[in-house]
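Tokens for chain A. Residues wanted.
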């Protein structure tokens, strides 16, 4: 059976990469995880961008966990990651997936 590349992020966990003055906030889709944005995150980080990809509350585990979360927790996680990037970057781009 073929093995995935060793640098492939299949972990649902949030990830980040330090970089230069440009930042990228990557937001995964509903019922997904930060692993969805990992290929783009690696691409941008390799080109010197600071990257933040939060794991939204209730995601990356069991769908039942989503029933315990309100949408305000999702926006709070995204806002915290954005504020972190804004504090260290001159310019921030935001990208995301939808359902």
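Reply:
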């Amino acid at each position: 059976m073929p093995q995935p590349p060793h640098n492939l992020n299949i972990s649902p966990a949030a990830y980040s990469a330090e970089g230069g003055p440009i930042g990228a906030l990557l937001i995964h889709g509903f019922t997904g995880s930060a692993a969805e944005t990992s290929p783009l995150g690696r691409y941008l980080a390799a080109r010197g961008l600071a990257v933040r990809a939060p794991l939204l509350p209730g995601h990356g585990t069991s769908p039942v966990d989503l029933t315990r979360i309100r949408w305000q927790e999702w926006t709070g996680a995204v806002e915290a990651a954005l504020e972190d990037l804004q504090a260290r970057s001159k310019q921030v781009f935001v990208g995301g997936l939808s359902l």
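Confidence is low (pLDDT under 50) at residues 1-5. The beta strands are 15-17, 22-27, 50-53, 91-96.
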